Amino acid sequence: MDEIARIGSRFRLEGEFSAAEPYGGGHINDTFRAEYRLPDGGRIRYLHQRINQSVFPDPVAVMENIDRVSAWLQQRIAEEGLPDPERRCLQVIPTRDGRAMYLTPEGEAWRTYNFVEGASTWEVVQSPAMAREAARAFGRFQRLLVDLPGPRLNEVLHRFHHTPERFQQFEDAFRKDPQGRAVGASPEIEFALRRVPLCHWLLDLYYEGEAPERITHNDTKLNNVMIDDATGEGICVVDLETVMPGLSLYDFGDLARTASTRASEDEQDLARVRVDPELFLALAEGYLAETRSFLTEAEQAHLVTSGMVITFEVGLRFLADHLRGDEYFRIHRPGHNLERARTQFALVRSMEEQRRELEELLHRHLGLPRP
Ligand code: GN1
Ligand code: MG
pLDDT at position 25, please? Predict the structure, then answer.
């Protein structure tokens, strides 16, 4: 961990480095939680994160967004008078020369955040209350950013949630089949090929003017919100690097993908991969508590749709990456991306089967319009 101590020494931190460990379950960047000793014997913890530059080729543009967004959130949170304001938003800790990011002589890009104490992230949702709180946190995040001043945020990953393009990339991977893996993935490939129309459902709403561009998080998996250990509140949204222009339904959809089922993202027992209507309702409730005032009719009517589209999209990405040779998402065992794709597709199938039931539930309990 000498390396982390060296990196830490470049930032304007309090205390003396004492220890560091890998942290979190992200598939892209490398995150370390480091502890620093204070002169009074106390300790303070920070997160040091190495930005994956093959995914984010322009880390400066990423940090520009994060800087603007987190400064604005801090201001808005203070204005709303919410308790514990410093735990409600990540703070970018500057380098000793005042930059948002430290570039090593080898060209690695590192950033540092405060670590939010007394809160945890979860890979699998534990209860409807947790689902509601996570959704409320992402909803609040969108609401507080509605009036972000200044120019449009940098589009750090072009067409990140453009589902038809994700389909194209999948098709390309399976036609080229560089690793000879297509034969072993034929049920998943067939599943995907039969669902081309699904790719267009959210973008059509956008093109028809029914779902406007907003500022969205774009990576709203359950494990990107910190849940307060004492109160259960969704206290702080993390992983801000994909915050950029997007559709609100991308955010609801990705949360539905990861928190409307009790199965994990790579659950292998596909019988467990089902939407739990109680969880889905809790997600919608929490999200709408913060966003209902500004969402359009169509956005409110398409929450279930968004879950289907984004779950399908992420499944396509896992499948394409498996076919290409696991270049993008970190894997922990051979075939891991194929397993993840299979799980996503099982969840899409469950959403297809339960769609009407879920839409009726949202209509009955929350008065949401039917699509
Ligand atoms: C990646 O960084 P992480 O693990 O939170 C990915 C998301 C995917 C997710 C799937 C920049 O998120 O888009 O939905 O994995 N992030 C990027 O688990 O591609
Ligand atoms: Mg991420």
Answer: 81
List the residue whose alpha carbon is closest to atom 17 of ligand 1. Answer: 28
**CATH number, span 128-366:** 3.90.1200.10
Q: Kindly report the pTM of this predicted structure.
A: 0.97
Residue-level pLDDT at 1: 78
Residue 300 makes CB contacts below 8 A (sequence gap 6+) with: 288, 292, 368, 369
DSSP string, 114-128: E--TTEE--SS---H
The per-residue pLDDT for range 234-243, each reduced to its tens digit, is 999 999 999 9
Ordered by start, the domain boundaries in the chain are: 2-117, 128-366
Q: How far is the CA of 239 from the centre of ligand 2 (A)?
A: 5
Q: Which residue has the tokens 């735990």?
A: 87
Span from the CA of 73 to the centroid of ligand 1 (angstroms): 22
Q: Does any ligand 1 atom lie closer than 6 A to the CB of residue 217?
A: no
Q: Dihedrals φ, ψ of 7, to 5°?
A: -60, -45
pLDDT tens digits along 24-52: 888 999 999 999 999 999 999 999 999 99
CATH code, residues 2-117: 3.30.200.20
